[in-house]
Design a protein that fits this description.
The chain is α/β, with parallel strands linked by helices. The chain has four helices and five strands, in the order βαβαβαββα.
């Protein structure tokens, strides 16, 4: 069984690219908003939450709420800039090699 990833990305084109990149090794559920992510987290179990750090998503609020409800859930935040607050996430700069993201995702999902 593949590890389950909940991925928050508002852009449809980027959603498709992310699924294509990850689907060989992960079961990926894409959502466009933080509210959708919180709803799915209540109804399902995921191994890792990935979110873009976009103001329109209010990603910092999503991270805080997800960690309050699911403290053991690993979270990756992707961004071209650092979050404003000290958040309990693994931050990955989007300008880095995509393999850095994949390596981190595998690590957090328990794939060797």
């Amino acid at each position: 069984m593949k590890p389950r990833v909940l991925y928050v990305e508002p852009d449809e084109l980027s959603q498709g690219s992310a699924v294509t990149f990850l689907e060989r090794e992960f079961e990926v559920q894409m959502v466009a908003t933080g509210n959708e992510a919180l709803t799915l987290l209540q109804a399902n179990t995921y191994d890792v939450l990935v979110t873009e750090n976009l103001p329109s998503l209010n990603a910092e609020k999503l991270v805080k709420q997800a960690k309050a409800r699911y403290p053991s859930l690993p979270i990756i935040m992707l961004s071209a800039y650092e979050p404003h607050e000290d958040l309990p996430v693994r931050f990955i700069n989007k300008r880095e090699d995509p393999l850095t993201f994949l390596k981190t995702l595998k690590e957090l999902a328990g794939i060797r």
